[in-house]
TrEMBL record:
Gene3D superfamilies: alpha/beta hydrolase (3.40.50.1820)
Lineage, opening ranks: Eukaryota, Viridiplantae, Streptophyta, Embryophyta, Tracheophyta
Domain Serine aminopeptidase S33: 31-273
InterPro entries: AB_hydrolase_1, AB_hydrolase_fold, Hydrolase_4, MAG_DAG_Lipase
A cellular-component GO term for this protein: cytosol
Species in which this protein is naturally found: Arabidopsis lyrata subsp. lyrata
Protein name: Predicted protein
Pfam families with a match to the protein in the record: Hydrolase_4 (PF12146)
Alphabetized PANTHER family for the sequence: PHOSPHOLIPASE-RELATED
Amino acid sequence: MMKFKFEYEEEYIKNSRGVELFACRWVPSSSPRALVFLCHGYGMECSSFMRECGIRLASAGYAVFGMDYEGHGRSKGARCYIKKFSNIVNDCYDYYTTISAQEEYKEKGRFLYGESMGGAVALLLHKKDPSFWNGALLVAPMCKISEKVKPHPVVINLLTRVEDIIPKWKIVPTKDVIDAAFKDPIKREEIRNNKLIYQDKPRLKTALEMLRTSMDLEDTLHEITLPFFVLHGEADIVTDPEISKALFEKASTRDKTIKLYPGMWHGLTSGEPDANVDLVFADIVNWLDARTGDSASLTVNPVHDFTSNVQKVVDGVSNGQGKSKRPQASLLCGLNGGGRRLVHRSSM
């Protein structure tokens, strides 16, 4: 397979609530086959944890864009506090549609890529604007609560009564997700040592927002109409493979594919031995290639009446007004020269 040269860039943006968010992209040097928009999982981030995904897809000719949700990774906000799940969806929609409206990308296909909780984000982005996206890749998605772990309605009712009193309390008991999600011990420790990944107990409001989102999605799986490829490890104990089966069976779209990987865990693209990761990414690229090879068969709906809710932050300044919030030397991504740091990388 031909490998494309690509460039890696970082920037900061401000969302509609004025919160500074980190964003990054892996862009082929030549015109991309299509655009892929990353939706990372709970507690995760894009620049390091999803770097392998960005590199693999950019090397295959796709422009890949990622954003750390508010409170996640290198973005501002209370760490891993999700006040409203809709805030995550709206932030992703605002940023990703801004990119799609750019002159060099407006005629390119648009694909969502969601891992775990990011699968729920991707599906909700589709539901927010059903005709905008050309397809979705869903890796061990969170779109239904397994009957094995679904809380009793009485428990949910009790927690709901206090969520606005102690929303940020880290009182939700949970097992070590990293141990349960990532099979390869070396990769597991690399992930554990990534300080951008949230590894504390879930906050009360966050846990309830994720629960409600999953339950709402479960009730509306039949409304999913975009083409998708759902991938799941059969040995996954973080999100039950039965969830992906339910999505595949209930979704209304005709173009749907499911693949279950025997013996693989939750972290299909980041926690498996290299041979398994190669297999998963080969399947992902093949699925994308099959839907982007013939440009005539890919319908890209135009962006109508577009007004961006996203502001680019350049050297700590939003829209070129005001003074820098912090010394330029301390900027995580050195936002000089147009707001993005450019790092040349080659996959060859």
